[in-house]
């Protein structure tokens, strides 16, 4: 990972009326990273990335994108940052080519749109209207429009929501291509799979704050269910003694299958304990936990920011 910061956010706070959308967010995204922001509905993700893109006023904090303050240097920010917003809708009747030409006109030195369209698989759809494109094609067009100004940073908000599995994978490949061409990617997503497969690092945001920031493996490793050990046993076993093992966070038995969750390395202790109990486990399996588990550990059920009104300072 390159070590130069591309985006630096420090103490960001944004309040809408009585709603605290972003309470206090600080994070640094490094050049060349695919950086994910995950979190429940209303956590403040879009407000954060829209503030980074210079599309919001902010109440306090500082933001820098390659040294540019997006809040006070709105024109300059468009030269370094491209943005594809959540459910960005174009005029339904506009054709792919018209949209590409229109966007090109906004920039002093746009990327030639024809090769860009070709690279994004839109070359055969230039005369097609936006409303007639498939969901995947619409997303490709929105990525093309975000890239046309040759940005150094691109913001993608819920890029693959509503796409079928094949289209999602194709879009993920495009995002990797974009990064491989040297563009830093800031990605808001609700998909654990997307975050886990695509992102170098992830910030989990809840109630307007960063709850954790790490690599996908780091987040999974810190979850209460970092390792999941399962086995079958025809005889009853002493679950309480499994629960007492260091690092074990949960142990349960269902229809003869025992599941033990815990920190990394807990499986060995489980096997030792079974040996002590004289139990030979069948179909023993040890699996890494999931990002879902880390996410559930770190986020609360109710993140409705109206509940955070009291937090107004
Ligand atoms: N322009 C606005 N005016 C008033 N409230 C807003 C505005 N934009 C966002 N909010 C509120 O701020 C909170 C945070 O919204 P935001 O869109 O940043 O969350 P999010 O994490 O992106 O959510 P989602 O996953 O649902 O897209 C929400 O309660 C939202 O209703």
TrEMBL record:
Keywords: Antibiotic resistance, ATP-binding, Cell membrane, Membrane, Nucleotide-binding, Translocase, Transport. GO terms for cellular component: plasma membrane. The lineage of its organism: Bacteria, Bacillati, Actinomycetota, Actinomycetes, Propionibacteriales. SMART domains: AAA. The keyword Membrane applies. Residues 7-232 form the ABC transporter domain. GO terms for biological process: response to antibiotic. InterPro entries: AAA+_ATPase, ABC_transporter-like_ATP-bd, ABC_transporter-like_CS, ABC_transporter_ATP-binding, P-loop_NTPase. It comes from the Bacteria. Its main location: membrane. PROSITE patterns: ABC_TRANSPORTER_1 (PS00211), ABC_TRANSPORTER_2 (PS50893). Pfam families: ABC_tran. It is a peripheral membrane protein. This is ABC transporter ATP-binding protein. It is found in: Cell membrane. CDD domains: ABC_DR_subfamily_A. The keyword Cell membrane applies. GO terms for molecular function: ATP binding; ATP hydrolysis activity.
